Amino acid sequence: MLIQSVVQHPDPDYPAVHRITMQKVLLKGQTLDRLRQDRILDEAFTTGDALTLMRLFGITEATAMRYVGTAYPERTAKLPR
């Protein structure tokens, strides 16, 4: 599911989805924030690439690295000094 705002995609053929409409569609207990977090985490599992997450979702490097670290903890393990 792709959710875009008017700022991101001002195409009249594909209007933005209003937040209230989405809240009515979501299952009880789900939020748009949790849906976005789940989408980012799914992409982290799929690609494992922080740069892709940063470009696709507009998140910072630190946030992207946390998602990649959650998806692939072995990649972020601390090495002995």
Percent in helix: 40-55%
Work out the radius of gyration: 16 Å
> What general outline do the C-alpha atoms trace?
elongated
Q: What is the string of SSEs from the N terminus onward?
A: HHHH
Number of helical segments with 4 or more residues: 4
Percent of residues in beta strands: under 5%
Main β-sheet: number of strands, strand sense, barrel status? none
Please provide a brief summary of the model.
The chain is 52% helix and 0% strand. The chain has helices at residues 19-25, 32-47, 50-57, 61-71. Helix 2 (32-47) runs antiparallel to helix 3, helix 2 crosses helix 4 and helix 3 (50-57) crosses helix 4 (61-71).
Describe the structure.
The protein is mainly alpha-helical and 81 residues long. Helices cover 52% and strands 0% of the residues. The protein has helices at 19-25, 32-47, 50-57, 61-71. Helix 3 (50-57) crosses helix 4. The model has no long low-confidence stretch (mean pLDDT 81).
Features:
single chain; 81 residues; mainly alpha; 4 helices; 52% helix; elongated
Secondary structure layout plus pairing:
Elements: H1 19-25, H2 32-47, H3 50-57, H4 61-71
Helix pairs in contact: 2-3, 2-4, 3-4
